[in-house]
UniProtKB/TrEMBL annotation:
The gene is nanE. The keyword DNA repair does not apply. It catalyses: an N-acyl-D-glucosamine 6-phosphate = an N-acyl-D-mannosamine 6-phosphate. It is an enzyme of class 5 (isomerase). This is Putative N-acetylmannosamine-6-phosphate 2-epimerase. Belongs to the NanE family. Keywords: Carbohydrate metabolism, Isomerase. The lineage of its organism: Bacteria, Pseudomonadati, Pseudomonadota, Alphaproteobacteria, Hyphomicrobiales.
């Protein structure tokens, strides 16, 4: 059955019609960050109005914490969501079809595990985007709640700021600005590829922190694979650079890093599959 799947991220919102793990139709709009959830939902309902007769269920994959269909920000710098917003309930009413909601990276972990880079076994998914999201699939089941919120981890030396505030796409753009360059994360990657020293330094810090995170994840969960994705179009070379930072680790401790196969659509495809099962 066809599902309307919606991914609300800190920067972009994607809506798609999905059937059997394949995208039939899709639209992409910027997330109006300051507008708030009522208007995000209204905008999506408006933009997808012409699809109304084509789907039977709705699935949301969103940045932030989702518990029992209620939505909150963990890091309001990634996206400011009011506490305990009743997302599943409002969406069910607005779209007139049964709706489920889950975290974006947890949905993406499921998508990659079933339709993407996964090859059976336990999998961790990591997205380096506006923030840093994560999802865990253990014994063929995606974990929910706080599980996998790796971007919120704080190392003892890190003081008050979460890891994503010193690693993610948002951090990369802010560092570029500090260095006197107005550029988004994708542009910083492009400059790094062209060999600009300031851009290479920023990317290298980001990849070192992401690589260290993967090393820690391996010790915590010992997954068979860690799949890396993210809205910054996973800049060619990002994973290679992570691997480079990990090259001195003893092989038995080394995480097995793989590039995501579904790109920025992993969350959409994952949540559509789970919504299609009836939630
Ligand atoms: C943050 C957190 C996670 C999310 C991750 C990636 C908020 C609002 N979000 O760690 O729930 O999975 O960012 O989100 O607290 P994205 O917007 O970068 O895709």
């Amino acid at each position: 059955e066809t599902v309307l799947a919606i991914d609300i991220g800190g920067t972009k919102t994607m809506a798609a019609l999905v059937k059997g793990g394949a995208i039939i139709d899709e639209i992409l709009v910027p997330t109006a960050r300051a507008a708030g959830p009522d208007s995000w939902l209204a905008a999506i309902a408006d933009k997808t109005g012409h699809w109304r007769d084509r789907y039977v269920r709705v699935g949301f994959a969103v940045t932030g914490l989702v518990q029992d269909g209620r939505w909150s920000a963990l890091n309001p710098a990634t996206l400011g969501i009011p506490d305990d917003y009743p997302l599943a309930e409002r969406a069910t009413r607005l779209f007139g079809k049964p709706a489920i909601a889950m975290n974006d990276a947890q949905a993406a972990a499921w998508g990659e595990s079933k339709f993407g880079a996964g090859s059976g076994g336990n999998l961790v998914f990591l997205t380096i985007s506006t923030g840093i999201g994560g999802g865990i699939v253990i014994d063929g089941r995606p974990l929910s709640g706080l599980a996998g919120h790796f971007g919120l981890i704080r190392g003892p030396s890190q003081g008050r700021s979460p890891l994503e505030d010193e690693t993610s796409g948002r951090w990369i753009a802010a560092e570029a600005l500090k260095a006197g360059h107005e550029a988004n994360a994708a542009e910083v990657f492009e400059k790094a590829r062209q060999g600009e020293p300031w851009a290479r330094a920023i990317v290298s810090q980001s990849t070192l922190r992401a690589a260290t995170l993967c090393r820690d994840i391996q010790l915590m969960l010992d997954p068979d694979q860690i799949v890396i994705g993210g809205g910054i179009e996973l800049a060619a070379g990002y994973i290679d650079e992570m691997r480079d930072h990990l090259k001195d680790i003893a092989p038995r401790l080394a995480p097995h890093l793989l590039a995501a196969k579904l790109g920025s659509r992993a969350g959409i495809i994952g949540v559509a599959d789970l919504a299609g099962e009836g939630g």
